[in-house]
Design goal:
8-stranded antiparallel sheet, 5-stranded antiparallel sheet, 7 helices, alpha+beta, single chain, about 300 residues
């Protein structure tokens, strides 16, 4: 049975709200921060109505799964994901179960670390315009969705309002220093390689993904979310093809629906139809089951 959607946790958490993003809410626990992953869904920079049932707890469980899987590769910010340990701070433990993560407080590095294994999405648009992606010169004649000979690192400068800004590696070095830039590049490529191989064994292509890192006690750690449908592009192997728009394993039903309407993308869109919401829930459940092999 599908649990009711949670659009916000403000009435469910007895702790100060630090930040409210499009999907995540951060609460101050003193030594640590509490992340609550809501069921809100965004597209084209708008938070849509209604929220998508199960989405938040699937994203949170999937992040927890990947943080555990990659722990040997690098440290991360997770303390625990047990709602019972929150005590009276959690006013409704049933609604909050599976959608909370208590994390260590790290200083966020304002770079979105993107790794691309295939030329698609925004990378394809850049390539069509200039033959480059984030300043990286690529071979002529590449086709949409083609795999790169080796994955490429294409960072973006974080922007909490609107789109992040694609930057070159040289620009990244100028912003945060060469040593840190090279460390983030190395860690990002290593993490991508691990997950790409893991996904491939389960019939899934990890086309691209993004990471966020922070500094804690002078060391770089992995923060935010990791290898979820909201920060990664997953393709079912059986749907892979060149020169088409591949139906990705995420909120694609929402994007497809919005593109089929007369919405101008400059105002709040009308509520999503029930069948689009249901199909989106099903997509998130499917990728979770295929990746984790858990119910």
């Amino acid at each position: 049975m599908t649990s009711p959607a949670v659009s916000t946790a403000v009435e469910l958490i007895d702790a100060p709200l630090l930040y409210k993003g499009k999907v995540r809410e951060l609460y101050d626990l003193g030594e640590h921060t509490l992340i609550v992953v809501t069921d809100r869904i965004s597209a084209f920079d708008y938070v849509l109505e209604p929220a998508v049932p199960e989405k938040g707890n699937i994203l949170n469980r999937l992040s927890a799964f990947w943080f555990d899987q990659t722990r040997e590769l690098m440290d991360n910010h997770v303390v625990h994901t047990d709602v019972e340990r929150l005590g009276p701070i959690a006013k409704d433990k049933t609604l909050l179960k599976d959608r909370i993560m208590v994390v260590r407080k790290a200083k966020r590095i304002d770079i979105e670390c993107v790794v691309r294994g295939y030329i698609t999405g925004g990378g394809w648009k850049q390539y069509q315009a200039s033959g480059e992606v984030n300043g990286i010169k690529l071979p002529e004649g590449m086709r949409k969705n083609e795999a790169f000979p080796e994955p490429i690192f294409t960072p973006a400068a974080k922007n909490d309002v609107g789109h992040d800004e694609d930057i070159s590696m040289d620009e990244m070095k100028a912003m945060i220093g060469q040593e840190l830039a090279l460390e983030l590049q190395e860690k990002s490529l290593k993490l991508y390689g691990f997950a790409r191989d893991y996904c491939a064994e389960r019939g899934i292509i990890l086309a691209d993904c993004k990471f966020e890192f922070g500094i804690l006690d002078g060391r770089v750690i992995l923060i935010d979310e990791i290898f979820t449908p909201d920060c990664s592009r997953f393709w079912a192997k059986e749907k892979y093809a060149l020169d088409i728009e591949i139906d990705s394993m995420d909120k694609q039903p929402v994007r497809t629906y919005l593109a089929s309407t007369t919405w101008d993308q400059n105002s709040q869109p009308d509520p999503l139809p029930a069948e689009v919401v249901e199909e989106t829930t099903r997509r998130y459940q499917d990728i979770y089951h295929r990746l984790t092999e858990r119910a």
